[in-house]
Design brief:
The complex is a heterodimer of chains A (223) and B (479). Chain A is of the alpha/beta class and 223 residues long. Chain A has helices spanning 5-13, 37-50, 61-74, 86-90, 93-100, 113-123, 174-182; strands at 54-58, 79-82, 103-106, 126-129, 133-135, 140-145, 159-165, 169-170, 190-194, 199-200, 208-209, 216-222. In chain A, strand 10 and strand 11 form a beta hairpin. Chain A is globular and about 70 Å long. The termini of chain A are far apart. Chain B folds into 3 domains: 1-41 and 305-401, Fumarate Reductase Iron-sulfur Protein, Chain B, domain 2 (Orthogonal Bundle); 63-295, NagB/RpiA/CoA transferase-like (Rossmann fold, 3-Layer(aba) Sandwich), CATH 3.40.50; 403-478, no CATH class. Chain B contains 23 helices and 10 strands. Chain B has helices at 8-16, 19-40, 46-62, 64-77, 88-101, 113-118, 120-126, 136-144, 160-169, 180-196, 223-229, 247-262, 297-301, 317-321, 325-328, 339-350, 367-371, 378-391, 403-417, 419-438, 441-445, 450-454, 466-478; strands at residues 81-85, 106-109, 130-133, 200-203, 207-209, 214-219, 233-239, 243-244, 269-273, 287-293. Classes of the chains: A alpha/beta (223), B alpha/beta (479). At the A-B interface, helix 1, helix 6, helix 7, strand 9 and strand 10 of A face helix 3, helix 4, helix 8, helix 10 and helix 11 of B.
Chain lengths: 223, 479
């Protein structure tokens, strides 16, 4: 019988000399970033702003909703799609939408994928999500996608607004990613790091904000 | 993609005479180089950071059999289907079968060097599946039917006018414009509809984590996210060296990759997929398939001299520092990979005989290896290729150097082996040399040296050597 591709590849690979592993050099220390909450927020805002994102700090949920109202007015947002994660639920965005005259689509409310895709691509002017973590080292948001936090909400609408409590803001990726990925059970089907709106420099090396993904990214830190 | 590695000189010359290409090459590599330096400066010890990165890659390649097995078992445990492919044809066939089995009409593709290498697009199109490259640069070169000019910015050299014209021709653009932002917007609107109704997406893989069975993609545009999030089926293709041992290593390499690639601390989007979507999720692929492609690599991995070539993470930093790339640009390298890393990979994957000029087009300045974050010593590998080509290493696809060159070196060897032979040859050569300078005779005679002589005007040499004159002088004085 002929060998399968796998067998043949491994037959070759197994002829490699047994690994002669030199010890790795010492790992260089991370740049020392402020660890107090104000410092973390300040660094995060500076980093995200450098990557063309917009970051705000809101004292509490009420202030977050007010900021949201301002953004919606400034960007002329009529329809938003919300993820059903703990942050967006706790903000009672449906009630807020009714009051502000913004129609609110819930990603968790769809049974049919094509209906959901049509809403995300064609109807929503903005997507609002929570985040699982954020990192001050690069101004990055991390979302664990699951039934409550669908992928297209932060991707298909032209604007992405992320709202999260300040305590989710860490300094370095390793702090939370490594613990999350040590237990197979807790690993999400997809985790996304978002650092700024979508961009490109593919035509004549001209930096352009807003390519396929959102053209604008707002982050609202609560607390 | 047609392989044009044998036309290095021809294409290189054409590009050097193309004012548009030259204007661009004067600025682009320099700017990207500076951006990289700014990015690297955010490390406490930039050199140390690269050194550690190199050690991760060295370990990954050294432990490849074990890591690939671990990766496979974790991928499978997560519900990912793994397909192994000996070569491009096998991988392409597998991808086509998935498309046919699922009644797929079209796919969108994320930027992927390995599928460039495999010529996947052409094969799918030939078999009736429409392919839309979704990275803006890749879309442009797909429409223009050109190879990538740069590993990171494949169409970065294409004049805006040309983008406008091809977009108008293909109906992507309705109103002519020269604004890059508006052209980008036209591409966005064109692909948006494809993304919305997408049933199968194809991406490459920047890293695969053995420890967790996670595949990682880095991007700025969001097209890879769409290609992975919207469809029912996601096919991600990796060459087998893309594995890293742990998630910790992956995070380390992501920092290094983005800084070296575009000078960013991180690209706009990094996605980590561990298995297909869970049942209760509304989006994400129901089926996640990882294709692991060998395509000649496992054979070359047995050669310790070449192992470093597999450290590469395709950041493109070496291109931006290379004085040869800065003159000829990306097309001359004739295949998927350009710049110093193309001079390493193309000969290894296509054979030394088809890539003769690639590993010789080097100033040996070593700027490529200086910036490499994964410890590739490009010039050493070029020298190794040259040596192996002379020795006629069949495993590397060499068919020895021409007879005339070998004879010349044999004559040289004879001449330099003894003083007597040397003096005798010198006496013989001198009158010939002078004659040759004024007449084309010598040029014919020293054919292998022709291109060397072409750019050099030798001053005529005296009939006698210093030693001979000294002896004559001694004789004169003693008389």
């Amino acid at each position: 019988m002929t060998m399968s591709a796998r067998e043949e590849i491994f037959k070759q690979l197994n002829q490699m000399d047994p690994p002669d592993l030199k010890p790795r050099p010492p790992e260089i220390p991370q740049i020392d970033l402020p660890d107090d909450i104000d410092g973390r927020i300040e660094t995060f805002i500076a980093e995200l702003t450098a990557k063309a994102g917009v970051a705000h700090r809101a004292e509490n949920e009420e202030a977050a909703r007010e900021l949201l109202t301002e953004i919606v007015a400034a960007e002329q947002i009529k329809t938003i799609m919300i993820a059903g994660d703990d942050t967006t639920s706790s903000l009672n965005l449906k009630g807020w939408g009714e009051k502000e005259g913004v129609s609110v689509l819930e990603a968790v409310g769809y049974d049919d994928k094509n209906d959901y895709r049509r809403a995300a691509f064609e109807e929503a002017d903005a997507g609002i999500t929570g985040v699982d973590f954020a990192f001050s080292e690069s101004g990055t948001l991390a979302i664990h996608h699951n039934s409550e936090n669908a992928r297209l909400v932060s991707l298909a609408p032209p604007i992405h607004i992320a709202i999260f409590p300040a305590e989710r803001l860490c300094r370095y990726y390793e702090e939370v990613v490594l613990p999350a990925y040590t237990e197979q059970e807790g690993i999400p089907s997809q985790m996304t790091f978002i650092t700024g709106p979508s961009m490109t420099a593919d035509i004549a090396a001209t930096p352009t904000i807003g390519m396929h993904g959102p053209k604008k990214l707002f982050a609202i830190i609560v607390g | 993609m047609e392989i044009k590695t044998e036309q290095f000189v021809e294409i290189g010359k054409r590009e050097m005479n193309d004012p548009q290409a030259q204007t661009f090459l004067k600025i682009l590599p320099e700017v990207l180089g500076v951006m990289r330096e700014v990015g690297m400066a955010s490390y406490t010890d930039p050199k140390g950071a690269s050194k550690y990165g190199a050690s991760i890659r060295r370990e990954a390649v050294a432990r490849l059999p074990e890591l690939l097995e671990q990766l496979e078992s974790n991928l499978v445990a997560n519900g990912t289907r793994v397909i192994w492919a000996r070569d491009a044809e096998e991988a392409n066939k597998a991808i086509l079968k998935i498309a046919h089995d699922n009644d797929i009409k079209y796919v969108t593709k994320g930027k992927s060097m390995v599928t460039e290498e495999m010529n996947t697009n052409d094969m799918l199109i030939k078999n009736g599946i429409e392919v839309f490259e979704s990275d803006l640069g890749e879309l442009i070169i797909q429409l223009l039917e050109r190879p990538p000019f740069h590993i990171v910015g494949p169409a970065i050299n294409v004049p805006v006018e040309e983008v406008r014209d091809i977009f108008l021709e293909k109906g992507i653009l309705t109103e002519p414009t020269l604004d890059p932002t508006e052209l980008g917007y036209a591409a966005r609107m064109f692909l948006r509809e494809k993304f919305q109704h997408l049933e199968m997406g194809i991406t490459g893989i920047n890293m695969a984590v053995a420890e967790t069975g996670t595949i990682i993609n880095v991007e700025n545009e969001g097209n890879i996210r769409f290609t992975k999030s919207s469809p029912r089926i996601q096919v991600s293709v990796m060459s087998l060296e893309k594995v890293v041992p742990t998630m910790k290593d992956a995070l380390y390499m992501l920092r290094l990759l983005c800084r070296n690639c575009t000078g960013q601390k991180l690209g706009s989007y990094i996605t980590f997929d561990t298995g297909p979507k869970k049942e209760d999720e509304i989006d994400g692929p129901e089926e996640l398939i990882v294709v692991i492609v060998d395509n000649g690599r496992s054979k070359q991995l047995l050669n310790p001299e070449l192992r470093e070539a597999f450290h590469c993470i395709r950041c493109g930093a070496c291109l931006n520092r290379c004085p040869v790339y800065a003159k000829v640009g990306g097309y001359a390298y004739g295949w998927a990979y350009s710049g110093p890393i193309g001079q390493v990979l193309n000969p290894m994957l296509l054979g030394l005989n088809r890539t003769q000029d690639l590993y010789r087009a080097s100033t040996d300045c070593g700027r490529c290896k200086e910036v490499c974050p994964s410890g590739v010593n490009h010039p050493r590998i070029f020298r190794y290729y040259r040596q192996q080509d002379v020795e006629g290493n069949k495993d590397l696809g060499s068919v020895k150097r021409p007879w005339s060159e070998r004879q010349s070196f044999k004559a040289w060897q004879w001449a330099v082996q003894s003083r007597k032979n040397w003096d005798r040859s010198i006496r013989m050569m001198r009158p010939l040399l002078n004659k040759g300078i004024s007449s084309p005779g010598l040029r014919r005679w020293v054919k292998p040296l022709n291109s060397w002589m072409k750019s050099r005007n030798l001053r005529s040499v005296p009939g006698k050597t210093f030693h001979e004159r000294w002896k004559d002088l001694e004789k004169e004085q003693s008389q």
